[in-house]
Design goal:
The chain is α/β, with parallel strands linked by helices and 334 residues long. The protein has nine helices and 13 strands. The longest helix is centred in the first third of the chain and has 13 residues, at 49-61. It binds S-adenosylmethionine (SAM) and iron/sulfur cluster (2 copies). One iron/sulfur cluster binds next to α8 and α9.
């Protein structure tokens, strides 16, 4: 068995339950830099209950500490089998389950049923009635509040994540007070680092604002740079590239984690991005071999892709090390 993530030590699963979404957040990877929906990558897959049952199964799930859905290209609540999946995962014995969502999809019956599965929900609510939709485009405030109240009212445990922009920064205290009134467990204020990123041609782009029709999303003025993983991408690759120690977040401190994309591709984390578009393509020869719809999980974890990744992470001689691993999980000053 591999000494990296393997079927025996696996204890965390992040399953992107869907690549459909009701919302249209301007910085979401569903969209390109011109805010066009990337049609080839979105609105075509849900992770099915059948795959969860047949390819993961209750035996493995009984050993899982955390099963969560915080995908890249969609919102797990859009999956028609969402409640059945959480129900199956929980009854199989997985200790903790959670879902990240904009809270807009589905009706109150869905959210009440999800609460019964004891799944923790992280609602991404970036403002109040007059501002949430400026980033969470198409999310209707009244429906969102009904859904939140139905979920918490049915005994569901929920956190409120609040992304701070110039247009909502004056509402943080008010939102936190509302979160307490509604019964959220935690209110998490978050900065975004997604102003600066690589565009689809691989060029590094730095932005101060994003124009959306008749309004603009603007950066919060701050004395220090927002903390976060992406800021390190600005650092120059130097001669530590091959040798710097990498603490793979997905295989570190007792954590052994995989990410299953809605299209079935399996990788250690969602930071590697689309495995067909980004640099992982340099070490993947056969896409069926890493896809859970075509292969067993055990064979995927023992296969060439995970093996090559592990060699790169461990800095083995002549191994192909991914820039994402270096930048995301590289240990500073090591
Ligand atoms: C692509 S979303 C998928 C899950 C769900 N649709 C949601 O938005 O919560 C994954 C995570 O990215 C977060 N996110 C969205 N826009 C972001 C941004 N500009 N900066 C940082 N995180 C962001 C979401 O809130 C969520 O926690
Ligand atoms: S709600 Fe999540 S998946 Fe949907 S557009 Fe926004 S960030 Fe993307
Ligand atoms: S980016 Fe690389 S090193 Fe970091 S968690 Fe993902 S696979 Fe591991």
């Amino acid at each position: 068995m591999s000494s990296y993530i393997n079927i025996g030590n696996l204890n965390v699963i992040n399953a992107e339950l869907s690549n459909y979404c009701n919302s249209a957040c301007p910085m979401c990877p569903r969209f390109d830099f011109d805010l066009n929906l990337i049609k080839e990558r979105t609105n075509n897959s849900h992770t099915s209950l059948e795959v969860i049952k047949n390819k993961i199964g209750s035996n493995l799930l009984s050993r899982i500490n955390t099963f969560y859905s915080c995908g890249v290209l969609g919102d797990g609540a859009m999956n028609p089998e969402c409640v059945d999946i959480y129900d199956y995962v929980k009854t199989s014995g997985a200790s903790n389950t959670s879902l990240s969502t904009n809270g807009g999809p589905r009706n109150t019956d869905f959210w009440k049923a999800l609460a019964q599965t004891k799944t923790h929900v992280v609602f991404a609510i970036d403002g109040l009635e007059d501002t949430n939709h400026l980033y969470r485009r198409n999310v209707k405030w009244d429906k969102l509040m009904e859904n939140v109240q139905a979920f918490i009212g049915a005994g569901g445990s929920a956190d409120w994540d609040f992304l701070v922009f110039k247009h909502n920064q004056h509402q943080i205290e008010q939102a936190e007070a509302l979160s307490k009134k509604l019964g959220f467990k935690k209110f998490n204020k978050k900065d975004t680092t997604r102003w600066d990123d690589f565009d689809s041609d691989g060029n590094w782009v730095q932005r101060e604002s994003i124009q959306i029709g008749d309004y603009a999303l603007e950066k919060v003025e701050r004395d220090t740079e927002a903390s976060g993983l992406v800021t390190t991408q600005k650092s120059k690759i130097n001669d530590t590239f091959q040798t710097r120690k990498i603490n793979c977040f997905s295989f570190h401190n007792g954590n052994s984690e995989i990410y299953i994309a809605a299209n079935g591709d399996v990788s250690p984390c969602c930071w590697l991005g689309d495995l067909k578009m980004h640099e992982s393509k340099n070490i993947i020869k056969d896409y069926t071999s890493i896809n859970i719809n075509h292969n067993t999980l055990e064979d995927i974890l023992e296969g060439e892709f995970f093996n090559e990744l592990a060699n790169g992470i461990q800095g083995k001689e002549n191994a192909y090390r991914l820039q994402t691993c270096y930048h995301t999980c590289g240990v500073a000053n090591a």
